[in-house]
């Protein structure tokens, strides 16, 4: 006689937790936006386990349009555009806004005047990361707008007491041009990596204890293992801080 046993399947207990919905302004560029999406979902799954993923909404812009307005200095139009997008995300149920780019945080003061939900400022996240790493003096790399204007450096200095170095004018042009002509298009070259690393090494001689990758595309090129000093990956830090907010 053949007896057919009954298989008992032990079901995995999946931890399900209510999370706040994250609104992302993406496309600045899409290469870094896909990193955000991957980081957000990977971190939520790591924390909650099972089949959990991030609850988010993305509105992605055309970077060619953004880039041309930046080059023309048409910041008022860009501030208005960013605000309109954030309002649409808010109306769609977002409970916090992430701008998936460092430079466009220039628009935050304008955006805050009309939003009723918070914006997670990437410079504040970077400042916390720098302090947590025990650094007092850092190199800031990014677009020429991020490096030369005060909106980012002031937060690091005034809120966190961090001394900020920026590359010399010629090196700023190199950093900026590689972002716009290569990284924004997903082009990664060893030559450009070497140029960035040479600039970082110069800052070490000036006492830099760390480098802030203040453009969300730079982590495509530079990682901690490439450098002797602390590397602050703003894309990763920003995404992880958003998950912390969403799950609080």
From TrEMBL:
Record carries keyword Isomerase: yes
Keyword Isomerase found: yes
Keyword annotations: Isomerase
PROSITE patterns the record matches: ASP_GLU_RACEMASE_1, ASP_GLU_RACEMASE_2
GO terms for MF: amino-acid racemase activity
Pfam short name (any one): Asp_Glu_race
Similarity section: Belongs to the aspartate/glutamate racemases family.
PANTHER family: ASPARTATE-GLUTAMATE RACEMASE FAMILY, GLUTAMATE RACEMASE
NCBIfam families in the record: asp_race
Name of the protein: Aspartate racemase
Phylogenetic classification of the source organism: Bacteria, Pseudomonadati, Bacteroidota, Flavobacteriia, Flavobacteriales
């Amino acid at each position: 006689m053949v007896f057919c046993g009954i298989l008992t399947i032990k079901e995995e207990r999946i931890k399900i937790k209510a999370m706040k919905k994250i609104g992302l302004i993406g496309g600045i560029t899409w290469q870094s936006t896909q990193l955000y999406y991957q980081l957000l979902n990977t971190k939520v799954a790591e924390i909650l386990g099972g089949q959990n993923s991030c609850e988010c909404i993305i509105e992605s812009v055309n970077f060619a349009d953004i880039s041309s307005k930046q080059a023309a200095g048409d910041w008022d139009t860009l501030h208005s555009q960013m605000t309109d997008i954030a309002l649409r995300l808010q109306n769609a149920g977002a409970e916090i806004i992430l701008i998936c780019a460092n430079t466009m945080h220039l628009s935050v003061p304008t955006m805050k005047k009309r939003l009723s939900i918070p914006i997670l400022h990437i410079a504040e996240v970077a400042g916390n990361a720098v302090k947590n790493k025990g650094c007092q003096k850092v190199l800031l790399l990014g677009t020429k707008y991020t490096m030369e204007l005060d909106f980012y450096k002031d937060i690091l200095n005034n809120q966190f007491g961090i001394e900020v170095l920026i590359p010399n004018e010629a090196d700023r042009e190199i950093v900026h041009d590689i972002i716009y002509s290569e990284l924004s298009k997903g082009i990664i070259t060893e030559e450009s990596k070497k140029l960035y690393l040479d600039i970082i090494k110069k800052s070490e001689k000036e006492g830099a204890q760390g480098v802030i990758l203040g453009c969300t595309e730079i982590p495509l090129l530079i990682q901690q293992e490439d450098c002797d000093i602390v590397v602050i990956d703003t894309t990763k830090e920003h995404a992880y801080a958003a998950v912390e907010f969403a799950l609080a």
